[in-house]
Structures are given as structure tokens and as C-alpha cells.
Amino acid sequence: MPDTPWLTMIGLGEDGPEGLSPASRAALDAAEIVMGAARHLSLLPGLAGETVTWPVPFADGIDRLLGYRGRRVVVLASGDPFWCGAGAVLARHLQAGE
């Protein structure tokens, strides 16, 4: 397990990138890799990090994400990722502190 947290999940709402908090923007600016659905990535042109389109079905991207451990990674999801979906699914594959 990495010594420091490596993964940030960012939820994109109906307002798109305009609704991102300063902390979310900072995480995107610092990310080495940004993973998300093609529609999410298209809302954020000009990202400094490598962009990776999350495959369908969702479960097919989990191993790829875990392969990026130790790098600064952002995962984009719809809405609140821990309220209805992606965050809870990914948390089952992570250790505390990641």
C-alpha cells in the first residue's frame, strides 16, 4: 500500500466544471492521471495529466486504476460519487488510507 493517499474522486454535477471546488481544481491540476467517462473528460479540456477513458462496464476499469497506485490519480464520476455509486464500489477494492 502507498505511504500517502494517491487517489482523489471528483464528482461532476449538472453544472459541470463550473461547480468544482478549489480543492477539486487543485487535485486535477496536480494529477498525473485523470480517469473518467469520455463525457466527463470532454468537459475538462486541457488537463495537464494523462487522460484515460474509463471502460464500460465500470468493473473493467478497476484493475487498471489499481495499477496506478503510487501515482497522483483523479477519478471523475457523476454527481456525488459516494452517495450513489462509483466511490462505494471503488472503496471495496482499496485499503484504509488510500
UniProtKB/TrEMBL annotation:
Superkingdom, natural source: Bacteria
Family annotation (Gene3D superfamilies): Cobalt-precorrin-4 Transmethylase, Domain 1
- Any one Pfam family here would be TP_methylase
- GO process annotations (BP): cobalamin biosynthetic process; methylation
Molecular functions per Gene Ontology: methyltransferase activity
Pathway of this protein? Answer: Cofactor biosynthesis; adenosylcobalamin biosynthesis
Instruction: Could you list this entry's UniProt keywords, alphabetically sorted.
Output: Cobalamin biosynthesis, Methyltransferase, S-adenosyl-L-methionine, Transferase
- The protein's name in its UniProt record: Cobalamin biosynthesis bifunctional protein CbiET
Q: Which organism is it from?
A: Pseudooceanicola lipolyticus
